[in-house]
Hints:
- The protein has 334 residues and is of the alpha+beta class.
- The protein has two domains: 2-160, Arc Repressor Mutant, subunit A (Orthogonal Bundle), CATH 1.10.10.1820; 163-318, 3-Layer(aba) Sandwich (Trna Endonuclease, Chain: A, domain 1).
- It is 36% helix and 16% strand.
- Strand 5 and strand 6 form a beta hairpin.
- Helix 1 packs across helix 2, helix 2 packs across helix 3 and helix 5 (122-128) packs antiparallel against helix 6 (136-160).
- The relative contact order is 0.07.
Amino acid sequence: xxxxxxxxxxxxxxxxxxxxxxxxxxxxxxxxxxxxxxxxxxxxxxxxxxxxxxxxxxxxxxxxxxxxxxxxxxxxxxxxxxxxxxxxxxxxxxxxxxxxxxxxxxxxxxxxxxxxxxxxxxxxxxxxxxxxxxxxxxxxxxxxxxxxxxxxxxxxxxxxxxxxxxxxxxxxxxxxxxxxxxxxxxxxxxxxxxxxxxxxxxxxxxxxxxxxxxxxxxxxxxxxxxxxxxxxxxxxxxxxxxxxxxxxxxxxxxxxxxxxxxxxxxxxxxxxxxxxxxxxxxxxxxxxxxxxxxxxxxxxxxxxxxxxxxxxxxxxxxxxxxxxxxxxxxxxxx
Length: 334
C-alpha cells in the first residue's frame, strides 16, 4: 500500500481525480480505476500535476520506474512488495484492453524479464491528450468504437513474433518469443521424435500462459491431476511404448533437475501410473557447464546443439561398452 503521509497539494489531487475519471470513461473495472491504477496511468504518460493533458508523453517504463515516478512526482511511495499489485491490478488489464503496449522496443523479450517495459498505445495517447477539451467526448466515443479493432491489431502484431511449434503428432501450437521457448521448440521438434518415438505431449507451460497445451484427460488416466499452483515442469511427454512419463525442464538461466527438484517432482507425481523420467534440457554445453554440479543422479540431460545424444546421470545402469567398441564377431571385416 502507498505511504499516504506524504503531502498532496491541491494540483496533485485534481490530477489524480482526472485520471480516475479517464479510467472510468474507458470502462475499466473498479480495481483498474482506483488511485493506484490512476497514478500508474499518469506515470505512463509522464504527466506532472502542473502540466496539461495535451502534453502527455510516451515514456517506456517498467514497474520500478513507474513506482519511482509516482514517488518523485506525486509524493506517494509504494513499497517494493507492491510491484505485483501494480502489475496484476493495473498494468495487466491496461495491456489486455489495448491501453498499453508491452515491450514495444523488443517484442521478443520474455514476459517475465526484468527488463519488461510498457508504453501507452498511440491511439490512446491521442485520446488522453484531449482530456479537458471540447473534443474529448467525440474523441472518446470514436476510441471506444474502435477499441476492439485496436486490440485485434495489437494481437496480430504479437502473433507475428510468436514461435510456431510442431508437436510429434503433427499438430501445432505457438509460444511467445524469447526466454526458454526456443528451447521448448527444440525439445518438441527434435528431442521427442528422437528419444520418445510415438510419444504424446501432455503438457507445455510458459511464463505467459502456464497451460499453453494441456491434455488433462490423458493425464488423469495416469493418475495425474495438475494444480495451477503447483510448480509443473516445462514439458510433460508420455512414452506410450514403455509406459514412461518424461518430466522435462527447459533451462536457459535457472531451474535444472537437481536433487531438490527431483524430490519435488517425485512427490508431485507420486500417484502416477507410469514410470517417471527426469530430463534437463539445455541449449548448449556452455550453459550446461554452469549447472553440471547441481544435476541430480538418476536423471537425464539433453543438449539442443547436440540433439542426437543424451547424457545419463544414472550410474551403473548404463555401465558397459557402446556398440562401436564391442568385440567384432570372428570373420567380421575391419
